[in-house]
Structures are given as structure tokens and as C-alpha cells.
Automatic annotation (TrEMBL), chain A:
Residues 1-25 are annotated as: Disordered. It comes from the Bacteria. InterPro entries: Fe-S_cluster_assembly_SufBD, SUF_FeS_clus_asmbl_SufBD_core, SUF_FeS_clus_asmbl_SufBD_sf, SUF_FeS_clus_asmbl_SufD. The lineage of its organism: Bacteria, Bacillati, Actinomycetota, Actinomycetes, Pseudonocardiales. Residues 134-361 form the SUF system FeS cluster assembly SufBD core domain. One of its GO terms (biological process) is iron-sulfur cluster assembly. It comes from Saccharothrix carnea. Belongs to the iron-sulfur cluster assembly SufBD family. This is Iron-regulated ABC transporter permease protein SufD.
Automatic annotation (TrEMBL), chain B:
It comes from the Bacteria. It comes from Saccharothrix carnea. It holds the Pfam family ABC_tran. Belongs to the ABC transporter superfamily. Ycf16 family. This is Iron-regulated ABC transporter ATPase subunit SufC. The lineage of its organism: Bacteria, Bacillati, Actinomycetota, Actinomycetes, Pseudonocardiales.
Amino acid sequence: MAVTTDQEQHGLTAHSHGAGAPVSSRADHFTSFDVNAFEVPGGREEIWRFTPMKRLANLHNGAEATGTANVEVNAAGGVTVETAARGDERLGVAGTPGDRVAAQAWSSFTEATVVTLPGDAKSEPTTITVTGPGEGKVAYGHLHVHAKPFAEAVVVIDHRGSGAYADNIEFVVGDGAHLTVVAVQDWADDAVHVSSHHAKLGRDASFKHTVITLGGDVVRLTPVVTYTGRGGDAELLGLYFADAGQHLEHRTFIDHSASNCRSNVVYKGALQGEGAHTVWIGDVLIRAAAEGTETFELNRNLVLTDGARADSVPNLEIETGEIEGAGHASATGRFDDEQLFYLQARGIPEEQARRLVVRGFFHEILLKIAVPEVRERLEAAIEAELEAVGA
Amino acid sequence: MATLEIKDLHVSVNTDEGSKEILKGVDLTIKAGETHAIMGPNGSGKSTLSYAIAGHPKYEITSGSVLLDGEDVLEMTVDERARAGLFLAMQYPVEVPGVSMSNFLRTAATAVRGEAPKLRHWVKEVKEAMSELDIDPTFAERSVNEGFSGGEKKRHEILQLGLLKPKVAILDETDSGLDVDALRVVSEGVNRYKASGDVGVMLITHYTRILKYISPDFVHVFANGRIAESGGPELADQLEAEGYVKYIGKQEAASIG
């Protein structure tokens, strides 16, 4: 087996190993569909310690739904879209809520949207647009995406609008299926979004999950990947850009319980402005049965101005020595003045040079977004964020 | 006729132990058509001179002046200096991940020339310039300097020199770390640039070997933060034979082997 960790990078500070890591194993993490099985978190709990609880619109403390989020599906040919009531046996199979807000969303949604992608067929991209309930309102939701065996499909989930919204999104990826998901959080400034993504991968399934978080006051996303058969392959990519006052938190968990599976996590974030805060927690658990696992996770943060803070905590637990490889890397750095000097020394004005560097920083993630329209829109959104720096 | 005038330049660098003076009064004038070799032992301040002229934020000019065609260079931002016609080929070119060499070159050329070069001509121009320096075309799509070998980085510095066509070029130890073939290719690139117009060159080097390829009109010995002696090409021969002992009081060779 090979366990690697990256070398210290120029201008970046390395993460500490072990410091701040949970004492208990990720394997013991509590999950339940019953909201009352979770205590109301106060903010000191390990999984909540970075989250500004006061800004959660009481999603963690029994807030009642006062509105609904509008879910609109633009389905490709062959894709079926249904609504399902609670109790529908398809729901809840991809994973169990791992925190109180997820359990609250499970208990509180009024109807779920079920999107089924046809098996043994290639389908065009399907877009699901979720619009928040509106300023000052609270809504809960549930989305279930099922890629049948040998399906080859792309799903874009586009979150917009205002209000507080908590939901669970399930991805059931059938044997041999290839599912690409792009989840965009392009919320209005007031929005609060707490979301759990549960992906369950079948044998030889491949799952490419890209998260883009740009808007919202507080966004907390928890993508969890589990494997039910050997040969599963998950790639989790994330890009976030936090402005003054924004809290953007991403907590990935890859649960390797089957043999010969792969996972690769790459999250990159930029921060600017007073009080901009990002959090990335990357948990990977390789259970005893998961022989032949290959996993790597990486988080990089680029701090563009004073007053911003990035937290980054990779946790890798390995319960078997019979793996292909496992590694993690995490670094948070300020803007590299040497890069800026080099570009400026070639005549490129400072502001343009800054944009080049930030665009370059995100390039690796943007390059992997398979849907050209989404990629173009995000490139434009990042440009707009950079315009706002004015630095 | 471009002229770079450096007058009584004093430069300090800020370290943990406070400010430290590196350049202690440098006087040097480089006119178009001239090549000046600045030779000196390690730590004599040669690189500081180049970075200070280019405007690196780490170096603080405490007194003196730098004029390019009468314009005060020290009042300009780093990018303004480059657009005014100064170029620094760096000893350690910086990696810029995610920014392709082709995008970088075009952005730089657009900034320096004041307008975007016509795409068709530009592609041809870059292709030819790369070929002259024996640079594989695939480098155009790679990130700026990322994963390049020392020699590849230096070739790309000279590629930029040829494309940006500055009035005055400062080459900071462009020869260091190059094997014989790379040294020849890079030197030919510098000579093409010299032949392309009325340009001035400040060639900073520790060793005399690059002077066999690029002939200097003047040679200056740099020691203890100032020019200790100036002369013609024969001064380089003297350094080749005697090293820097006369200037620093200890033996340090200027030739290899």
C-alpha cells in the first residue's frame, strides 16, 4: 500500500496531521431517519463546530415549513419524472440522514421528485431547477435520481432564489451506469441551504459529482458516497467562491466498504472580503473489506484578501493494509505575489494578472465540467466575482 | 535610441532581521546597440539589480534613479515598466498553474503592443519563434513553466524576449543550469533579438562561458553591491583567468573547470 501526503507548497501552508481530527471513527457516525433521534445541535458538536448556527433559520431546531421550493425538471428523452409521496419505497434507499437538518428534511418534505434515467442507454442532459421558497420562508425537499443499470446520463441541479431550504438528494447509480451530476448553488444573498447528497454506487458504476457553490448566505453541503459492489468509481469535484460574509461549507464522506473501488476528491475554493468563510471536511473511510481501494483527496484554498478564513480538514481512516493507494492533500494560501510579479513583468496589468491566476487556479475543475453551457455560465460567474474584488 | 540610465542606485531588502542594504550606489548607462555583461561572484547583488529595475516589491529603492529614455522607471508599476520597454529574463521563472503558455503569451503581447495581435499572424509568429528555440509545439498548451525543466524555462524566457521585443533586456543568469546545446540555442535567440533592432542588453552572469556566444561591448565586475571595475571584453578574459579574488579577497572562479 502507498499512503502519500503532499509536500509543502510554495506560498502555501500545509495542513496539520491529526490535529482537530475526530477522536471517534467515522464508522461510528450516527444516522437516522427520525429527526427526534438527533439532539438539537448547539454548535459545539464536531460536525457543527464550523457552522454559524444562528444563521441557519432554525433548520436545525424544528423550523416548520412556511413555503415550498419550486422544482422544475427539463427532462431529456427517455427520462421519466414523477412526484412521490413519503412512504414510496424507492425513497431513502441511497442513504440515511447523518445530521439533524437532513433528518428534519426527510420528515418534513411534502412531495419528492423522482427522476429515472433509462438503463442501457445514453441520454442528453436533464436539468432540474430548484427555486427557493422566497425571502424569510422555510421549505424542505427531497430529490431522488436513479440511473438504471448501464445508463449513461448527465443531470444538472440548479439551485436559485431566496429563503431557507433543507433537502436530501439521492443518487442511485445502477450496476455499470455512468452518472454525471453538476450541482450548482447560485442562490440569492439571503439564502440558507443545508443539503445532504447520498450516492449509492452499484458494481462497476461510475459517478462524477461536481459541486459549484457561489451564492447564498450559508450553504452547507454534505455529499456521501457508498459502494454496494466492487469496481465502483467516484469522482467528487468542488468549486466555491466566498465573498464577504458568506459561509460555504462542504463535507464530503467516501465510505469504502467494497473491494476494488476508487474515489478521487478535488475541491478548490477562493475567498475574498471580510468574514468570507469556507469549510472543507474530507472524510474517507476504508473499511476492512475494502481491499484494493484507491483513493485520493485534495483541497486547495486561495485567500484573495484579508479578513477571509478557510478551514480545511482531511481525515483518512484505513482499516486494511491491502489497498492500492490512499492519500490526501490540503493547503490554503494567500495570493502568490511571485506569480503576480511574473505576469506583470510581462506587461500584463495587475487586475488582469489576478484574474488570470484565479482562473488558472479553478481551471482544472472547470475543464472537467462536461456540460458546455454550465461551464460557460460558471466561467462568466467567476469573472463577475473577480470584478467585484476590484483589487 | 533607447537609453537606460542607472544613477547612484541604493537598494535594500527587508528581512526578518530588518532592512539590509544590497546595492550601494550603482551607476550604469546602457544605450541601444550595446551589450553590457555584469559579472560578479555569488551574493554580490547582481540579481537584486535586475529585480529592482523590474520593480519586484521585495526590494526597496532607498536612493538613486533609473531612467528609460528620460522617463522615471521607479515611478512606474511593474507592468508599466514592461510596457515602457523593459524586459527581465528571470533566473527562476515562476510557474502559473492553469494558465496556458499560449494564453499567457498572447495576453502579454496584447498588453505590450497595445492591441491584440491578429490571430492568424500571431499563431505563425509564435510557431516560428518556438521552432527557432527548439521548443516542442505542445508546450503552448501547457501551464506557464509548470513542470518545465530548467532549460525549458530559460528557452521560454527567451521566447518571450523575442515576442515582446523590449527596448532594453536584462538577462539574469540566463545561462545558469543550461547544457551546451541549450546554451547555444538560447544565445542564438538573444543574438537574433540583438540583430532585430536598436536594443540594449544587460547580461548578468557568474561565468564567462555565455560570452563565447554573446559578445559584450562592455564588461563590468560587480562586487559588494556596486560596480568595482569596468572595461571591454578583455576584462572577461582576465576574470576567466584570475577569478573574482581581486574583488572579494577570496578565490571564486569565473570559469568552469
